[in-house]
Amino acid sequence: MRLTRIVVVAALSLAGAIGAVAASFAQTAPAPPPPSAVPVLMTMGDLMNTLVQPRHLKLGLAGQAQNWPLAKYALEQLRAAFANIVSAKPKFAGMPVGDLVDVALTPPLNAVDAAIKQQDPQKFAAAYDQLSQGCNACHMELDHPYVVIKPADVSAFPNQEFKPRH
Question: Taking the model in full, what pTM does it have?
Answer without folding.
Answer: 0.75
